[in-house]
Amino acid sequence: MIRVEGLGRSFGAIRAIDGVGFEARDGRITGLLGPNGAGKSTTLRVLYTVLQPDAGNASVDGIDVVRDPLAARRAIGVLPHSAGIYPQLTARENIAFFGELHGQSGLQLARRVDELIVDLDIVDCADRRAKGFSQGQRIKVALARALVHKPQNLLLDEPSNGLDVMATRALRAQILALRAAGHCVLFSSHVMQEVAALCDDIVIIDHGRVVASGTPAQLLAQFGAPVLEDAFVAAIGDARGLE
Amino acid sequence: MKRVAAIVMLKELRESLRDRRTLLTSLVFGPVFAPLFFVLVLKLTLAHSVAAQDEATPVTIANAAAAPNLVQQLRENGLEVTLRDGTEQEIRAWITGADGLVVLRIPDTFGERFAAGQPAAVMIYADGSNARAEQRSARVNRAVAGYSAMIAALRLQARGVSPTVVRAVVVDHVDVSTPSARATLLLGMLSYVILLVTLLGGLYLAIDATAGERERGSLEALLTVPATREQLIYGKVAAAAIMMILALALVIIWITVALRFVPLETFGMTANFGPGVAVRVFLMTLPFALIGAGLLTVIASFTRSYKEAQSWLGVVMLVPTVPIAIASVLAVQPSATLMLVPSLSQHLLMQGLMRGEPLSPAWVLLSVASSLLLGVLLGWLAGRLYRREAILG
């Protein structure tokens, strides 16, 4: 469960986000949709505690991310925009390293890593060094790394960036499985189709503000649009960044 | 808290030890090749100075018939005399054609003036821009001067005057340097080598763990684990320090071994670099590894990319040599105050050890304490830098 209220943050003269507010509930997939530079990444970065907001507040499972960032981090799994992994470590070691940093160890950690390797279908490359991995393999390892401590909430920043069709399908299956397991999944995207295909709730962001939010059905009704694409265009005023 | 730093440290070390380039640069090129190169240069220098001493000086004498006694005397002095007659022009041509040729020309009037007890001139021809010719002509000059002094003494005796009358002041050179101290002059560069190789040992890990991590895009994920950024960066600094300590140990071992192959004793020098000294040099230089790791991490934290970090750290590598260079130019004597200057204090203590001088425990303590303090400060600064949001790039 993620709750954001009146969140603001400036970089110099630029107001990256300005009063963003929304809720992402457990057992649902919430999509942050918006053109490039709308403030999606900034919002997520505040949520996963690497940026400080200068207005508003945000909480994960009731934990304030500014007041208690360490506790908030235990409750979230993060796939950042640049999901780099360590090239000299194997997929297994990459995942285990994050497990250790989350306080896991020994047999319990080894079992968890094995489980993730099977779930994410990276058995073939599990014990190879990550140096030559494809973008799809890298994202899977990065996702496994984010899931190693079984977080209730997942924050994914443009997870399908650079993935081919097969890899995208595999990723979607993962996200749906996480929802089915009762997790709260929040992901950002500028790809209309992706959001439409996956999300239970959509938050449309533009110029650092939430311009519309709701279930797909609510958005269609609100803008009197036949398809989501039209609702999106109506919400942000033009067709910028639409794919 | 300590656990997180240890986990990060082990992971950084594991990555570095798997990376062939890092491994080669940190633990092979520096620690192994630097001492070998050093010893090679040392050997060549020594071999050269021996050859120059032992070489018979060749000299070509023109118009030797005019001064047979002089020629005989030069031969007895160990000069390798060749007789060849020619005019001044011809002599100049010979010298241009041959490397390091020295020609002694005796004018026709030599015998006449010599017999009359007047100063008899001889000419030495040599190329002044040729180091070897210069050396040889000096040697010929000394031999001729020796002959001149001998004849002068005989003449004075013949006139009933003691030759010592014309020797008002006699200079005797007394070399008071111990054999070890003489070697230290040559081995003085060793502390440079040790400190630089130590730094080089942690260079790639420091870049990889900071600028490299940011460039590869794994930093952001790392910052979302439930640990403070200080804990993470302390682990990275510790990993760089351990690589430096490994490089330090290796370079000292190699120096100890390599110096056995330099025949320093034949020049009346001893290299005071046995296992005992090696262990003490290692222990005294340990705190320097912490400074190096902190310094490199701080600098690499500022840079935006691997390349930028590399070029910056190339310059930073020279920083520890600055105090040593200044101290060498000013020829300062070791003192308690200088023990507070990191890198210089290690250099001075190493020099003392190699010279076989007793170590002042107070100085060692000052050096270790001040270096540790600076290292801790730099580590703390790296932690502060990592708390900035700008670290994300």
Brief write-up:
The complex is a heterodimer of chains A (243) and B (393). By secondary structure, chain A is α/β, with parallel strands linked by helices. Chain A contains 9 helices and 10 strands.
Describe the 3D structure.
The complex is a heterodimer of chains A (243) and B (393). Chain A has 243 residues and is α/β, with parallel strands linked by helices. Chain A folds into two domains: 1-75 and 152-157 and 171-180 and 201-243, P-loop containing nucleotide triphosphate hydrolases (Rossmann fold, 3-Layer(aba) Sandwich), CATH 3.40.50.300; 83-151, no CATH class. Helix content of chain A is 38%, strand content 25%. Chain A has helices at 40-47, 69-74, 91-101, 106-119, 135-147, 165-180, 192-198, 216-223, 228-236; strands at residues 2-11, 14-24, 29-33, 55-60, 63-64, 76-79, 153-157, 184-189, 201-206, 209-214. In chain A, helix 3 crosses helix 4 and helix 3 (91-101) packs parallel to helix 5. Chain B is mainly alpha-helical and 393 residues long. Chain B has two domains: 2-47 and 179-392, no CATH class; 55-166, abc type-2 transporter like domain (abc type-2 transporter like fold, 3-Layer(aba) Sandwich). Chain B is built from 15 helices and four strands. Chains A and B meet through helix 2, strand 6, helix 3 and helix 5 of A and helix 1 and helix 9 of B.
Task: Name the helicity range of chain A.
Answer: 25-40%
Termini Cα gap of chain B = 26 Å
Reported CATH architecture of the largest domain in chain A: 3-Layer(aba) Sandwich
CATH superfamily of the largest domain in chain A: P-loop containing nucleotide triphosphate hydrolases
Order of helices and strands of chain B: HHEHEHEHEHHHHHHHHHH
Bin the helical content of chain B: 55-70%
Number of domains of chain B: 2
- Total helix count of chain A? 9
Number of strands of chain A: 10
How many helix segments of chain B?
15
Shape of chain B: elongated
Largest sheet properties of chain B:
4 strands, mixed
Mean pLDDT of chain A: 92
In one word, what is the shape of chain A? globular
Low-confidence parts of chain B lasting 5 or more residues at pLDDT below 50? none
Pattern of helices and strands of chain A: EEEHEEHEHHHEHEHEEHH
